[in-house]
Design a protein that fits this description.
The complex is a heterotrimer.
Chain A (H helix, E strand, L loop, with lengths): L3 H7 L1 H20 L2 H26 L7 H19 L3 H23 L5 H20 L7 E2 L2 E2 L6 E2 L4 E2 L2 E5 L2 H24 L1 H11 L1 H6 L4 H27 L1 E2 L6 H14 L5 H19 L5 H15 L4 H12 L3 H16 L1
Antiparallel strand pairs in A: 1-2, 3-6, 4-5
Helix pairs in contact in A: 2-7, 3-7, 3-10, 3-11, 3-12, 4-5, 4-10, 5-10, 7-8, 7-10, 8-10, 11-12
Chain B lengths: L1 H31 L6 H17 L4 H23 L8 H23 L13 E4 L2 E4 H23 L1 H11 L1 H6 L4 H23 L11 H14 L3 H23 L1 H18 L4 H4 L6
Antiparallel strand pairs in B: 1-2
Chain C lengths: L2 H21 L6 E8 L6 H20 L7 E8 L4 H14 L4 E4 L3 H13 L3 E4 L7 E3 L2 E3 L8 H12 L2 E7 L2 H16 L3 E8 L7 H10 L3 E5 L6 H9 L2 H4 L2 E3 L7 H4 L2 H4 L3 E4 L8 H14 L8 H20 L4 H8 L4 E4 L2 E6 L4 E12 L2 E11 L2 H4 L11 E3 L12
Parallel strand pairs in C: 1-2, 1-3, 3-4, 4-6, 7-8, 7-9, 9-10, 10-11
Antiparallel strand pairs in C: 5-16, 11-14, 12-13, 13-14, 14-15
Helix pairs in contact in C: 2-13, 3-4, 5-6, 13-14
Classes of the chains: A mainly alpha, B mainly alpha, C alpha/beta.
Chain lengths: ~350, ~290, ~425
């Protein structure tokens, strides 16, 4: 049912988005000042985090309230490994592996215990808060892994990325931007591919109706564990880039505020889409930055009002809503035909 | 011997404290399946009501037992009418909206009162002496109030018509609605009552904690975890969750220090939810309130 | 899907992303400085007063005709209690706004986040907060007091007054832990005994178990390095248990978050604190400073503490250095500061120590009475002796190290 050609066809919009992003990646350093590029790197890292949650929540139906845990673990693992190895090449791999392994262990614990919805959210959140508390108290010379001190509340400064297998050549911020954009595009394409594979479709089926998927003979626990682990790996890549954008990793990243923020990006962008949360992350990133530069209104006040209005007025998120308007606005024969056919199919069901 | 008594008293207070900050959230979660992320700010509003009114010369007891629940209860009803009502059955959206509300309330209070507000209240009742140890009389009082509050909630649920209707709505909202109960009104009252109880808790804690616009953040995670660990039964759940988690935190705090006390609480919650995915009252005391 | 919608989105995205770049146009008529502080979120209790005084400093400079005939423009960023935003704004201020200096940072974590960024862009950085000491950075001036200035004075004073047995409570993070180490050192140096040290996560609000432990240990006094809004609960619960009457408290962190107003008079009376500034400091500059702020803000004037006043004095020190250097460029201004520049501010004379880029400053001990600090003792011109143990920017200016990042080993202390 899902041959390679079908998957590729289904991914056509994803390729268009990726091409658009690639053009932006090439154009941005020409258009923008250096500081904007550096700060954009941080935004890209956060967008990858949002993408990972969009994948496991929007497609896998797993409400992970602690996606920042894997993001932060990735950043910490990268930093610690890079300090110990004296180079970043293997450290990136370590970051992805550590985050995925922790996610696999936690996921096994949760999914094979048949936890669902809100309880899953609480466990992942609690796990994040444990990391927050524990990492905050790791200051002092006794807390170290290999050569790298953990740094406690103040965190650790992250070694810059270097050319693969060449620790002597460090990347400049503008190069890190290219790396970050490339990582975002690749992660996005990977996620878009994944949701169109057989595996991805089963995950969506489980999200829609877990019992039905199980009765069809799928081991839903294994599929959930799979997508959860993959999502954590993607989040870890975001974490590595975040440590580059900030130059440092602190326990701050595991805080309740950040944990909730990711969920907001995905809701604002729209569940069930991948590009939506990415775009929403950029939009909210610049909104928060802009808020911090103005002095008229309290930031919390503005952010709070925006969120409430959003939930009430645009409950499905930006991307699905825009898409809805688009479809309604342009009644093209082909689209109408597709819609009619889909309606018939739904009616038949 | 006096050490044992003093430690036991502290343990009891730790548990009562956890129950006090959680019970309002449990009412709203148990009845409505709504997770109110602005719960910490409701506590803060209760505290602020007490601080601001006592600064203006109002009697402390009037502020704590009347004004704090009243103000926060009204806020709760307004929030339910304006916000929550539109989002029933959409748990995640409610989560997001109440998080927005939490930020809004912090921003609002900061804009009105500034980053901190001076206070003049001290905890009443002086101290009690247990051998070599002295302890706060107010803490003992709080343990008593918490138990009285639990008793009152139990009585309301058990003996009043409101309680009956509420329990019916909780078990099967559609059936209750078909039998002529206005679920919309019940939800409004529930949310208002949950908020009022939270306001009372915030007011009660005001004399022995710092009251700041941002203080809610220190409560929300703990309250949230206690309620979920307890399960959906309002009283039994809060009691079981608080006793277990508060007890573990207290013991570990004595043995190893406050940091690992906190971590032990969190780990206990994770293990507990793995063993009992529906919370303690999802497994035991299932018929309880 | 047609092209039009996508080009629209791309166009919008480009416009949004391009905006910050356009905001960074330089205007030569003014000299710009940036302030990055937490003005919302949990740390705003510290940031809000610092913001008020930073703005006042710039107003005062401009009222006196500006600097070098140019007006000074202040760009304020609210880091919203997030480390990520600190780095972002530091990058934007240094490379985008091209400011002459950045003032700000509250926690050591925030300082450590922006220090490398500002060093990389060669933008002068003033950190105006009391902290644990140990920063040794050519580009960074730390104007706040350090433990060798405050802890070293308050410990012997209270031990003489109350007794030799001490119990230490501190916030469980780098600052609290290192400050607790300094406290233990000064207790031992003065022939005292530390009976216990206990650390608390920043969000603990129930201190009951610790209050029992303190009673069990029966010290003569408690020294506190507790930090933040949640920890205010300690002082209230301590008083509620009646301990404030029998075991008094001394602190080097109580007061900068307006804590003395957040607990009642009865709960706070008798507590002794040490800082390089209290509102009660008696000199003409301070009287004038307070009067002007009162006239300007009336009842909404925040309580002023070391952080707030040092933020004012930090900007003023920078202004003095610009005048002396005749330019706002970084290197001449740093050299001007390194001449041992002095500014007479509300806290008294503040002099830059060229060796450490910290300040030689007055230190005051004060006792809390009815929510107000009354000064007990004043110690003039205290050097940053802790940082001087490890740092010599005269001999070796090319440094950017935080020596006490992981404890006091660098200073040869256990």
């Amino acid at each position: 049912m899902t041959g390679g050609a079908d998957t590729i066809r289904a991914m056509r919009p994803a390729f268009l988005w990726a091409a658009l992003a690639a053009i932006f990646a090439l154009a941005a350093p020409q258009m923008l000042a250096l500081f904007a590029i550096i700060n954009l790197t941080t935004a890209i890292a956060l967008a990858i985090l949002a993408l990972s949650l969009a994948l496991i929540w929007g497609y896998g139906g797993i409400l992970c309230f602690g996606q920042v845990a894997f993001f932060g673990l990735g950043a910490y693992a990268y930093t610690i490994a890079a300090v110990n190895f004296g180079g970043s090449t293997w450290a990136i791999l370590v970051a992805v592996l550590v985050a995925s392994a922790v996610a696999a262990a936690l996921g096994y614990f949760m999914f094979y215990g048949r936890l669902s919805d809100v309880y899953l959210g609480v466990i992942t959140l609690t796990f994040t808060l444990i990391l927050f508390s524990v990492m905050r108290r790791t200051s002092g010379p006794d807390w170290k892994i290999g050569k790298s001190l953990l740094g406690g509340f103040n965190g650790i400064s992250s070694p810059p990325l270097n050319l693969p297998w060449n620790p002597a050549v460090k990347l400049f911020p503008e190069h890190v931007f290219y790396v970050a954009m490339a990582a975002l595009i690749l992660c996005y394409l990977f996620a878009a591919w994944l949701v169109n594979t057989h595996f991805g479709r089963v995950c969506v089926a489980i999200r829609e109706n877990e019992t039905r998927a199980e009765l069809l003979g799928y081991d839903t626990r294994a599929y959930k564990l799979g997508i959860f682990t993959i999502g954590a790996g993607i989040a870890a890549i975001g974490g590595v880039l975040f440590s580059q954008g900030i130059g440092r990793i602190t326990p701050d990243v595991f805080g309740l505020y950040n944990a909730a923020l990711v969920i907001i990006w995905v809701i604002v962008g729209g569940r069930g889409t991948l590009a939506g949360p990415v775009i929403a992350t950029f939009a909210l990133f610049y909104l928060t930055s802009w808020l911090g530069g103005q002095q008229v209104l309290n930031n919390n006040l503005v952010l709070g009002i925006i969120l409430i209005v959003f939930v009430l007025a645009v409950p499905r998120g930006i991307a699905p809503t825009l898409l809805g308007w688009w479809r309604r606005g342009t009644v093209r024969p082909a689209a109408a035909r597709v819609r009619r056919r889909r309606n018939r199919a739904e009616a038949a069901e | 011997m006096d050490l044992v008594v003093a430690v036991a008293l502290q343990l009891a207070y730790g548990i009562a404290n956890l129950a006090l900050i959680s019970v309002g959230l449990a009412i709203i979660f148990g009845m409505m399946r709504v997770i109110n992320l602005a719960h910490g700010e409701f506590l803060m509003l209760g505290g602020y009501t007490v601080v601001v009114t006592t600064n203006a010369g109002v009697n402390l007891w009037l502020a704590v037992f009347v004004l704090a629940p009243l103000v926060v209860g009204i806020v709760g009803v307004l929030v339910e009418r304006i916000l929550i009502r539109r989002l029933y059955g959409r748990m995640i959206d409610t989560l997001l909206a109440t998080w927005g509300l939490s930020l809004l309330l912090i921003g609002l209070v900061t804009s009105i009162f500034g980053a901190s507000t001076a206070t003049t209240i001290s905890p009443p009742f002086g101290t009690i002496q247990i051998g070599r140890f002295s302890s706060s009389g107010y803490e003992l009082f709080l343990i008593g109030v918490t138990m009285a509050l639990a008793l009152a909630i139990w009585a309301v649920l058990r003996f009043t018509r409101l309680g009956l209707v509420a329990r019916g709505t909780m078990q099967n909202a559609e059936m209750a609605s078909a039998l002529g109960v206005s679920t919309s009104r019940i939800y409004m009252i529930t949310f208002g009552l949950g908020a009022a109880v939270t306001g009372l808790a915030g007011g009660l804690l005001a004399p022995i904690t710092g009251v700041l616009p941002t203080i809610g953040a220190t409560y929300i995670a703990k309250a949230f975890i206690t309620v979920i660990s307890g399960g959906s039964a309002i009283l039994a759940g809060t009691a079981a969750g608080s006793v277990l988690l508060g007890g573990i935190q207290g013991v570990f705090t004595f043995l190893t220090g406050p940091t690992f006390g906190e971590v032990a609480l969190l780990i206990a919650a994770i293990v507990l939810l793995r063993l009992m995915p529906r919370g303690i009252t999802g497994r035991f005391f299932r018929k309880s309130l | 899907m047609t092209i039009s919608r996508r080009t629209f989105l791309a166009g919008t995205a480009g416009a949004v992303l391009g905006m910050p770049a356009l905001m960074g146009r330089a205007q030569d008529a003014t000299i710009r400085i940036a302030s990055i502080l937490d003005l919302s979120g949990g740390l705003d209790i510290y940031g809000a007063p610092m913001d008020v005084t930073t703005k006042l400093a710039v107003e005062d400079i401009n009222a006196a005709g500006g600097l070098l005939g140019r007006r000074v423009e202040l760009i304020t960023y609210d880091a919203q209690s997030s480390i990520q935003l600190y780095t972002q704004y530091a990058t934007q201020a240094a490379a985008g706004d091209r400011v002459a200096a950045v003032h700000g940072g509250i926690t050591s974590a925030s300082r450590e986040a922006i220090r490398p960024t500002l060093a990389r862009f060669q933008t002068l950085y003033f950190y105006n907060t009391q902290y644990e000491g140990g920063v040794c950075d050519y580009n960074n001036f730390c104007t706040g007091s350090t433990p060798a200035q405050t802890v070293a004075k308050v410990v012997p004073y209270v031990m003489n007054k109350w007794g030799k047995k001490v119990y230490i409570v501190a916030a469980d993070y780098n600052y609290g832990q290192i400050t607790a180490q300094w406290m233990q050192k000064f207790v031992a140096d003065n022939g005292g005994e530390t009976l216990g040290v206990e650390f608390f996560p920043l969000d603990v609000t129930n201190f009951g178990p610790t209050i029992n432990k303190i009673q069990q240990a029966a010290p003569n006094l408690v020294i506190s390095a507790l930090v933040g809004g949640a920890h205010v609960s300690f002082y209230r619960q301590y008083a509620a248990a009646g301990l404030n009457a029998s075991i008094p408290i001394a602190s080097t962190t109580f007061g900068v978050g307006n804590e003395h107003k957040l607990i009642s008079a009865a709960e706070g009376n008798g507590l002794i604190a040490a800082y390089s500034y209290f509102e009660a400091v008696d000199n003409p500059v301070n009287r004038d400073f307070l009067a002007r702020l009162d006239a300007k803000m009336g009842a909404s004037r925040p309580g002023l503490n070391e952080l707030a006043v040092r933020s004012y004095e930090g900007v003023m020190l920078w202004a003095e250095a610009v005048k002396l250097a005749g330019t706002a460029d970084r290197n001449p201004v740093v050299e001007a500061l390194r001449t041992g520049l002095t500014y007479n501010g509300p806290s008294g004379a503040v002099t830059v120590d060229p060796k450490t880029h910290h300040c030689i400053q007055n230190v005051y001990l004060a006792e809390l009475k009815d929510q107000t600090f009354d000064i007990l003792e004043a110690y003039d011109a205290q050097p940053p002796a802790d940082t001087q143990l490890v740092c010599d920017l005269v001999a070796n200016p090319d440094q950017s190290t935080f020596f006490f990042e992981n404890g006091l080993a660098a200073a040869g202390i256990k």
